[in-house]
Design brief:
Blueprint lengths: L9 H6 L1 E4 L6 H9 L13 H5 L3 H4 L4 E4 L6 H4 L4 E6 L2 H13 L11 H6 L1 H7 L2 H7 L16 H8 L5 H14 L2 E4 L3 H11 L16 H4 L5 H10 L1 H39 L8
Parallel strand pairs: 1-2, 1-3, 3-4
Helix pairs in contact: 9-11, 11-15, 12-15
């Protein structure tokens, strides 16, 4: 498949780019676009932290594009800090999508639970609540052994490895980190997010792209009671605040870029008008 972006990716490759993939936020589709954009030898094949940790340091230096569930602090492993980017998604939609993903995972211990059973289980509630906020706060710990990193529960493992701030403090830290990211996309505005990503790095926006890791029509028809919906909303209180912050940040950046483009166009138009006045001699 040909590259979705133009071949103007030198700056991004020089800086390095890390897509912090929060599960069920359109990250698989975005990751596929990245894969089909950059030279394969520049893309790290790891998708999980334990896979990344097994790659020799001498080999890691060859990669410039990283996409996966590595959480925050990848520079501790790489030896340099790449440009960060991520996607967020409306919290209820992300939560339900994750539940559907579990249902279609044959070896997952929770795959036979109903949604009500899922949201009522105290252990599941603890590890699934405010997942987007926690994913931005959890940080890589070099002191941890690779054998400790079980992919399914890696977020909880990282959280247990160091003292955790309170819920409100986590939200504030997640907001600060989002502000520092060069790119923040919103799953519900995927095409606009791609355009923002492309414009930010002087790339060509893809006109078409594959939609990956989606559910079947049968799974889409999931009847959710008001009781269960209220539980899911309550479990994701801080994710709602973070998501609204991300949307506002996204719109602010779009408007800033539009203002820059408008200013350049006005400057160009003024110069063009002046050069075409009667009596003006062409150089």
């Amino acid at each position: 498949m040909k590259s979705f972006f133009a071949n103007q990716t030198v700056d991004l490759l020089e800086s390095g780019f890390y897509f912090l993939h929060i599960p069920k936020t359109a990250g698989t589709t975005f990751g596929a676009i990245l894969k089909n954009t950059f030279p394969p030898e520049k893309i790290c094949p790891a998708h999980h932290l334990q896979e990344l940790a097994k790659i020799p340091a001498c080999k890691l230096g060859d990669y410039r594009v990283f996409r996966g569930h590595f959480y925050y602090g990848i520079e501790k492993i790489l030896g340099f800090k790449p440009i960060y980017g991520t996607f967020l998604r409306e919290p209820v939609a992300r939560y339900i999508s994750n539940f559907r993903h579990i249902q279609r995972t044959p070896d997952h211990p929770d795959r036979h639970l109903t949604l009500k059973q899922f949201v009522s289980d105290p252990h599941i509630r603890a590890r699934s609540a405010n997942y987007q906020t926690r994913s931005l706060v959890a940080e890589i710990q070099l002191s941890m052994s690779v054998s400790e990193l079980e992919p399914r529960y890696i977020l909880q493992t990282l959280e247990k490895s160091v003292p955790q701030p309170g819920p409100r403090e986590k939200l504030e830290l997640a907001r600060e980190r989002l502000k520092s990211f060069a790119f923040v996309g919103v799953a519900e505005e995927f095409q606009s997010s791609l355009l923002q990503f492309a414009e930010s790095f002087r790339l060509k926006c893809p006109e078409t792209y594959p939609i990956l890791n989606t559910v079947s029509e049968e799974q889409k028809n999931l009847d959710i009671s008001n009781e269960v919906l209220k539980i899911v909303q309550d479990l994701n209180q801080f994710d709602f605040e973070l998501y609204n912050f991300a949307r506002a940040l996204f719109q602010e950046r779009v408007q800033k870029r539009q203002a820059v483009v408008s200013k350049k166009l006005n400057t160009f138009a003024a110069a063009f008008s002046w050069r075409n006045k009667p009596g003006h001699k062409k150089p």
